[in-house]
Amino acid sequence: MTMQRFDTVLVANRGEIAVRVIRTLRRLGIRSVAVFSDADRGARHVVEADTAVHIGPSPATESYLDGKRILDAARTTGAQAIHPGYGFLAENAGFAEACAQAGIAFIGPPATAIESMGDKIRAKRTVSAAGVPVVPGRDELDMTDHDLRAAAIEIGFPVLLKPSAGGGGKGMRLIHDESTLDDQITSARRESRAAFGDDTLFVERFVTRPRHIEVQVLADAHGNVVHLGERECSLQRRHQKIVEEAPSPLLDAATRADIGAAAVDAARSVGYVGAGTVEFIVSADRPGEFFFMEMNTRLQVEHPVTELVTSIAGERGVDLVEQQVRVAAGEPLRWAQQDLAIDGHAVEARVYAEDPTRNFLPTGGDVLAVHEPSGPGVRVDSGVRAGGRVGSDYDPMLAKVIAWANDRGGALRRLDAALAETAVLGLHTNVAFLRALLRHDDVLAGRLDTGLVERELDSLIAESNTTPEHVYVAAALERLLAAEPTDSVVDPWDVPGGWRLGEPAWSTWRFARADGEVRVNIRGRAHDAVVSVETTPATAVHRASVEAHVDTLTATYQGRTRRYRYAHVDGTTWLAADGHTWALAELRLLADRGGSSGRSDGVVTSPMPGTVLVADVAPGQDVHSGQRLFVVEAMKMEHTVTAPIDGVVAEVHARKGQSVGLDQPLAVLAAQEEV
Length: 675
What we know:
By secondary structure, the protein is α+β, with helices and mostly antiparallel strands. The protein has 5 domains: 3-107, Rossmann fold (3-Layer(aba) Sandwich); 136-205, Dna Ligase, domain 1; 210-465, ATP-grasp fold, B domain (D-amino Acid Aminotransferase, Chain A, domain 1, 2-Layer Sandwich), CATH 3.30.470.20; 469-590, Glycoprotein, Type 4 Pilin, CATH 3.30.700.40; 595-674, CATH 2.40.50.100. The chain has 16 helices and 42 strands. Strands 14-13-10-11-12-18-25-23 form an 8-stranded antiparallel β-sheet, with helices on both faces. The protein has an 8-stranded antiparallel β-sheet with strand order 27-28-29-30-31-32-33-34, with helices on one face. A 5-stranded parallel β-sheet has the order 3-2-1-4-5. A hairpin with a 2-residue loop joins strand 38 and strand 39. The chain is globular. It starts with 7 loop residues before the first strand and ends with a strand.
């Protein structure tokens, strides 16, 4: 078998990973086939592929998770191989076997290896037998809720409840004491069942100050297995990674060699073939001690940092997707372990459509504009483009920004600068939060653990909780500029500021703010104006000006010039600068909210776009503050919506199974004294 067998490869995925795989296929001269659901018509991966096939409605179960439709698409387009990316069918042993039965190569490990490592209970037993250290715990098959409770108490708190069938933090629960154990078991089972179709759980000891370190392995069908060093993935939120780097700042050379050898042993224990990742947990207090967590039998989201730092025979850089294709085509690895080395340092940040100030709840909306960084040592893997829409059907990750430098400090600085140039207008992202995280003292010093983000969250989002005055001024100046005539001969009555004998009149723009409104008063023309901002009883007057070129707004205010990316749609001005994104809505378009303040404490709204899983509420029902009313699910994450006050349910606007939008009213409560 030679690589020439693959002249067409179908990419059974979407978003940034599909775009990234297509890029390598194009470089190798292989024709790429994209697949897409209703929600992804016109998506970036569809546009960039050589051809694309529609495979069904938006729900993943009817499109990207439908193996039969994907195989049919491969047959009709003449694809000899399928690359699954990550997620969806990437670790589905049944799909890998179906590909084999259809005579189509699955660019991944054999089904037997996926089965062995896909079941975490079985995986721990397999690698333990091969001498790989594992975390103490209980992993009997078919443990009942009673068994899980007894095991947790026996092991001693804190413990981790983990789903056997999948990863990514879905269904995982950290439990500190017995009081919440029963509720957490029920919730973990429900979330695991929804995410993986399997609610099997196991329990293990929670390692204090844990660091998440994983090792990239690569194996061929000829018995060769190598590792390409480790990645540090300790910076997480909701048990999901957000910043990864290679190599880890924690490990010394001896531990690096030991953990790499353990990863190779784990891969050999299941007859692994292809690219995979062996994940370990390491205590920050005892860095020489590591425990196997799981093996991901696929390409990892964070694989670019390994690609950027891996040196082969003195030449830096490796394409893991290319290696996957070569291995799947039957080629042996071209190098041995002694040929591989680490050169420099790389750090990756995941850009998500989420709001860190609202506990990382997913956001969404129409993508008005996208600005991605570039330059020496900077790489962007992105699946988003202007004109697209980000909804609640799929994972909220939009892109990855990666930076390489000779040392860790240089890589962190380069990544921070790249994120400052990153902007997605039309929805809120976590970019400003990522910049704050990269500049945190503990991150700069390499003092990482999986609980750092949770501990430091308030400080990391502090800057994002307020909108600076200069942003309101820039938005008002942009509106003034848009309203001004562009002709050389101007009728004074057409000038927004009005015409008066003597001085021009003041124009006022009112923008909504969480605690009311901000008024920006402007007199003059956009290129030469005076401005006052009514945020306090005493308002000062400052000179200001603005210019616009394509999608860049340059505004001068209080003697400082700033540049923003901008867009305006439906009464909202979107501005982005230094990693921050602001959406400023003109208050005149929100007049219908004017009378709502009197009952605002009793309005229960959805914290994210999604689907109502639980609706424990009915008209006339008495409720107390903090009582669960709804559970909303989006992108495999559950969020409990509670009563904000003691009262009686006056109105119910959502039912179980209903799709709801961000801030959509779910119910209205009347305070007891109002009844």
